[in-house]
Amino acid sequence: MPIATPEVYAEMLDRAKANEFAYPAINVTSSETLNAALRGFAEAESDGIIQVSTGGAEFASGTKVKDMVTGAVALAEFAHVVAEKYPVNIALHTDHCPKDKLDGYVRPLVAISQERVDKGLNPLFQSHMWDGSAVPLDENLKIAAELLDLTAKAKIILEIEVGVVGGEEDGVAHEINEKLYTSPEDYLKTVEALGAGEKGRYLVAATFGNVHGVYKPGNVKLRPEILKQGQDVVAEKLGLPAGSKPFDLVFHGGSGSLLEEIHEALTYGVIKMNIDTDTQYAFTRPIVGHFFQNYDGVLKVDGEVGNKKAYDPRSYLKAAEQGMAARIAQACEHLKSSGRMIAG
């Protein structure tokens, strides 16, 4: 199927919310990892989200070029062509973008999509993230409001972060402390600044103990009830029935989370869960295995010539694609709760 239109993406998110499941949002940095993501979603028979961080986009442009917009556009255009061969809906998203990179990443990409929409085409990306976790909340929401106006016009969904995800990802680092928990006041300020959808649709990466990085299961101390508290206080402010979930929530920093914690978060309105660390390892592990098993083929040992079939990148990247795809298919299964995430 073609990359999701704005209407299809909205329907995907609505379906996740109604049926209490979340889409894995898979970070990619190359055509190889993008192909693995597409394959993983297709093998799971699930729609999904593929995303590009600032660092991932810079890498994709080439280590000599190092231009975030060039890399992001290249991956997106590649995805638009290749995704047509897969029987699932895929949305394209850009991950964490801090304040100092907005003008060099998100704003130019939104402008490109606006040009496409003005010509009667669909936007290049379906959503973009503004990560204002490093600035005061009032400034975070002021910038978010400005971006929401731009993204709504370009038929794009905005994602914001309210609270702080601990650990480090792509140079964005935060301490692990009490700021990891979004407060009820933070949720209220968010809806006051950005509205409840009438100014444009947005996703909220609220924090409840999330930490980026590598952790064993049980080491990340999550408090999913923080999400419920936020939904409840905003629902009350908006005069919605008890149990309403006005926010579309995003789960960042989930490595090491227990499955029951993930499923609890789904019941509180999480519809997107970022996955990067696990899929990086799933991609790399088969390559390492190939090199260990074929060391005398990938190296010209003691003056020998090696084995061209062993050091041809296709021989190990094929295995890497399979490994990453399998991990993504597993993630799709884990992010089901009471509902179905099968491609619609």
TrEMBL record:
Pathway: Carbohydrate degradation; glycolysis; D-glyceraldehyde 3-phosphate and glycerone phosphate from D-glucose: step 4/4. Keywords: Glycolysis, Lyase, Metal-binding, Zinc. Binds 2 Zn(2+) ions per subunit. One is catalytic and the other provides a structural contribution. Its EC number is 4.1.2.13. InterPro entries: Aldolase_TIM, FBA_II, Fruct_bisP_bact. Signal peptide: none annotated. Coiled coil: none annotated. GO terms for molecular function: fructose-bisphosphate aldolase activity. SUPFAM superfamilies: Aldolase. It holds the Pfam family F_bP_aldolase. It catalyses: beta-D-fructose 1,6-bisphosphate = D-glyceraldehyde 3-phosphate + dihydroxyacetone phosphate. Its cofactor is Zn(2+). The keyword Zinc applies. Catalyzes the aldol condensation of dihydroxyacetone phosphate (DHAP or glycerone-phosphate) with glyceraldehyde 3-phosphate (G3P) to form fructose 1,6-bisphosphate (FBP) in gluconeogenesis and the reverse reaction in glycolysis. Belongs to the class II fructose-bisphosphate aldolase family. This is Fructose-bisphosphate aldolase.
